[in-house]
UniProtKB/TrEMBL annotation:
This is Carboxymuconolactone decarboxylase family protein. Gene3D superfamilies: AhpD-like. It comes from Amycolatopsis rhizosphaerae. InterPro entries: AhpD-like.
Length: 189
């Protein structure tokens, strides 16, 4: 249970009810972070718009590479909600989610190609405290993905760092998206 209670559909304002409906249609359930943010409608609106725009902005970087890097960041930071939701998104995109079980061995696993390994190592370096990214790493990523792709990757990993740390602070945990039980979240029906 999160440290700040989720706002139920019944208690939600008009704007939150609309976002809940869209989220239910898109994901099968209302993401608990949205329901918690509904306690502050301006932040809920800001977050929803930001998430949509950030998703649409990834055009130069292969989507699966961005998704893997975001997933790796969630694993590194221990965000069970992010891992659950990220797995569900990758599953719906038709990606091989079985290889996610080997994400800790990405550097040597044949399940990940060179470009993916570079992005995953970058996610690790960006998620270190303090950040351990090197100039050589950035140069190699720019050669691999181009400047725009590198910026998209950096932005997506940074955004996941924000999400994971915020959800960790608020104790927002696994919601059951991967198991198909997300609709069981109390008070969001």
């Amino acid at each position: 249970m999160p440290r700040i209670p989720a706002v139920s559909a019944r208690e939600a304002g008009l704007q939150a009810k609309l976002l809940y409906r869209v989220a239910r249609r898109r994901f099968g359930a209302v993401p608990e972070p949205f329901a918690v943010l509904a306690n502050h409608p301006a932040l809920l609106r800001t977050s929803a718009i930001h998430e949509l725009l950030a998703e649409k902005a990834v055009r130069a970087l292969p989507k699966h590479v961005a998704d893997l890097a975001v997933y790796r960041t969630a694993v590194r930071l221990g965000c069970s909600w992010c891992i659950d939701f990220g797995t569900m998104l990758q599953k719906h995109q038709g990606l091989d989610i079985d290889r996610l079980k080997n994400i800790d061995d990405y550097a040597t696993s044949p399940l990940f190609d060179r470009a993916e390994r570079l992005a995953l190592a970058y996610a690790d370096a960006m998620s270190d405290t303090p950040v351990s990214v090197t100039s050589e790493q950035v140069a190699e990523l720019e050669r691999e993905f181009g400047r725009r792709g590198l910026l998209e990757l950096t932005y997506q990993i940074g955004l996941e760092n924000q999400r994971a740390r915020m959800f960790g602070a608020l104790d927002i945990t696994d919601q059951g998206f991967t198991s198909g039980e997300a609709c069981r979240v109390p008070g969001l029906g």
